[in-house]
Specification:
Blueprint: H1 6-13, H2 30-41, H3 50-67, E1 70-73, E2 77-79, E3 84-89, H4 93-99, E4 103-109, E5 113-114, H5 117-131, E6 139-144, E7 158-164, H6 168-173, H7 188-191, H8 194-199, H9 210-221, H10 223-230, H11 238-242, H12 249-264, H13 269-279, H14 281-294, E8 299-300, E9 305-306, E10 322-323, H15 330-337, E11 346-351, H16 354-358, H17 361-372, E12 376-379, H18 389-393, H19 397-410, E13 418-421, H20 424-437, H21 445-454, E14 455-457, H22 458-465, E15 478-483, H23 486-491, H24 496-504, E16 507-509, H25 525-528, H26 530-547, E17 551-554, H27 557-569, E18 575-578, H28 579-585
Parallel strand pairs: 1-4, 2-5, 4-7, 11-12, 11-13, 13-14, 15-16, 15-17, 17-18
Antiparallel strand pairs: 2-3, 3-6, 8-9, 9-10
This protein binds iron/sulfur cluster (SF4) (2 copies).
């Protein structure tokens, strides 16, 4: 059997699988392909001349088309109303393979069925744009029934259409996973995936690769193939933001991880411990305070980092310094910090999140100062727990659900005009994650509605609600670069406000390459996959250093940890700070607020 798609033929000659759904040989350089063609044809090939290489392939493949008795194709769509198959390609190979041989067998996944031509045309328009950036591919082939065929003795083509189930019908019946069948195989979710960008499709996939591959592999190829890859997701949401058919890929990936664990019959010990601790807020916080005491011999106090890593982190974690827990969490500092504003303009609850509370309370202290200066009464509801995202990342959905309910109970929504978050990941999880997790709990619907209505990130609050002006800030024009956290720019859709706030606060914003690409943190991901996390971080830091900025600013405490740890390891002069800190630093002393 001879593959006729150029990329597929190349990997067939190399006896390997595809590394991309649309461009199966994208992992190879032209020199590697030229060398391969030279070996196959036994004639020297110019390793720089791509046009020549394409001609070599054409010369080799044409005899195979002419000699073949049977051509096998897939189909990009199958129109139920007319029985028509649609094939989209850029090389014309699909057209040759379906017309020249006397027998044509089309293997069509059941999900390729569309009701009518209008639905088929929608796919034909969307697919090339998202796959290769073309308005239309070079060839669109329509086949309706067995047509005339010169190479067939009967003069008629013999056509077999084989519909492939292979797990698709089970997927269609699943209330959560059925949305994965909307996939049109454009490959866009791989193109933007930072993990795919580092490890490629041979590692991040089996046959289907990238984000959708992490899901489909479980259903089409089983848990053993899925187990190896499904945890390899940073939850950066890049795939979801580009998917033209709106599949919630990161959420489904976590659900597949849960299925793999269930099928294996045993939850990892770390999951059991994390669940037990997170569900019990008092225990969780008590353990963090004990850890803050025990870490003391390892801490370099001025820098607030662990100078000697405990052995459990091992050498591979050495790519960044790890933060120390704060001596006192924000919740213990709060009684002395709590502002008493008479006639406040707004009453606002801070949802702190674990990192702000136990690692970086200075970020919340900056917020207190800023809001105090703008006549806002800030409150810190004491019963708030971890947002629950770490539990969801470990596919502990039950725990994530329980923690979500605890937090909704802890927030008295009628009391506050806004629920403010300093952590983009907490904010995104409260808004998007809670809606999915608690969709089946009608008793939580009203609280969810209020949460949606009142949740706001720091920058949006400053720009859109307080409408801060340059007059409130020292205009020292410190040059700052900005890292746009995945969960802020993609999940919460906040992009303009942080940049505007920096400029209003008298800072000189220096744009940076790939500002919205993940920093490689991903919570526990950076601990579990340090080799990949460190590579993503390295590239990020390189881009930031190119800006020449003195300070790097971001609005997610998790990103601050990763970026600051990386800069520290490089002995860089660039300071990494939360946006609330740099904005508070530039706030003019007005004496407003506190009474
Ligand atoms: S969420 Fe990010 S890391 Fe995970 S699959 Fe999607 S793009 Fe890749
Ligand atoms: S999941 Fe979405 S982005 Fe990924 S290949 Fe399918 S349609 Fe394209």
């Amino acid at each position: 059997m001879t593959e006729t798609d150029l990329g597929e033929w190349i990997i067939q000659l190399r006896h390997e699988g595809p590394s991309h759904m649309v461009m199966p040989a994208i992992h190879l350089s032209r020199q590697q392909v030229g060398t391969l063609f030279g070996e196959v044809t036994k004639t020297p090939v110019d390793l720089e001349d791509i046009d020549r290489m394409v001609k070599v392939a054409r010369k080799e493949l044409r005899p195979a088309f002419l000699a073949a008795d049977m051509g096998i194709s897939g189909a990009n769509l199958a129109v139920a109303e007319t029985g028509t198959l649609g094939l989209i390609s850029n090389e014309g190979n699909a057209r040759l393979v379906t017309t020249l041989p006397r027998v044509h067998v089309a293997l069509v996944g059941l999900e390729k069925l569309v009701p009518d031509l209008a639905a088929a045309l929608r796919i034909i328009k969307v697919l090339p744009k998202n796959a290769t950036g073309q308005a239309l591919t070079s060839y669109v082939t329509w086949i309706t029934g067995a047509v005339e065929c010169g190479s067939s003795p009967s003069g008629k083509k013999i056509l077999h259409i084989v519909f492939l189930d292979n797990g698709r019908l089970a997927l269609a019946r699943d209330p959560f996973f059925s949305e994965a069948l909307r996939c049109i195989r454009c490959g866009a979710c791989s193109n933007v995936c930072p993990v795919y960008g580092k490890v490629g499709g041979h590692t991040l996939g089996h046959v289907y690769i990238g984000a959708i591959g992490l899901i489909l592999t479980y259903f089409y190829h089983g848990k053993d193939q899925a187990r190896a890859i499904v945890r390899n997701c940073l939850n950066c949401q890049a795939c979801k933001s580009v998917c033209p058919v709106n599949i919630d890929l990161p959420y489904l990936i976590k659900k597949v991880y849960g299925l793999v664990q269930k099928a294996e019959g045993a939850r990892p010990a770390k999951n059991i411990v994390l669940s037990a601790v997170l569900k019990n807020r008092r225990l969780f916080h008590a353990l963090l305070k004990v850890a803050a005491t025990l870490q003391k011999p390892l801490v370099q106090k001025e820098a607030g980092v662990l100078r000697h890593l405990p052995f459990i982190f091992g050498k591979v974690q050495d790519f960044r310094t790890l933060p120390a827990l704060a001596e006192k969490p924000f919740r213990d500092l709060w009684p002395k910090l709590r502002p008493q504003i008479q006639n406040p303009t707004y009453r606002v609850a801070l949802f702190g999140g674990c990192v702000v509370d136990f690692v970086s309370p200075e970020q919340a202290i900056s917020l207190v100062r800023l809001l105090d200066g703008h006549n806002v009464q800030l409150e810190y509801p004491p019963d708030q727990n971890c947002c629950g995202l770490p539990a969801l990342m470990m596919a502990e959905e039950e725990t994530a659900m329980e923690v979500a309910v605890q937090n909704l109970e802890a927030l008295d929504f009628r009391r506050y005009a806004y629920i403010l978050v300093l952590c983009a990941s907490c904010g995104a999880h409260l808004k998007e994650g809670y809606s999915r997790l608690l969709a089946q709990k009608p008793e939580m619907a009203e609280k969810l509605r209020l949460l949606h209505e009142k949740l706001i990130d720091f920058s949006s609050f400053m720009v859109k609600v307080l409408k801060v002006t340059p007059e409130s800030f020292l205009q020292n024009q410190t040059q700052v670069a900005y890292h746009s956290p995945c969960h802020l720019c993609r999940s919460l859709g906040v992009t303009r406000e942080p940049r505007e706030l920096l400029q209003t606060a008298g800072l000189d914003y220096a744009p940076c390459r790939d500002e919205d690409v993940c920093c490689g943190f991903g919570g526990s991901y950076s601990l579990e996959f340090p080799e990949i996390s460190s590579e993503i971080l390295r590239q990020k830091l390189d881009h930031i250093e190119e800006t020449g900025a003195e300070v790097l600013v971001t609005d997610c405490p998790g990103c601050v940890l990763q970026l600051r740890g990386g800069m520290d390891k490089r002995n860089s002069r660039i300071q990494v700070r939360h946006i609330a800190e740099v904005v508070a630093t530039n706030l003019k002393k007005t004496g407003a607020g506190r009474h």
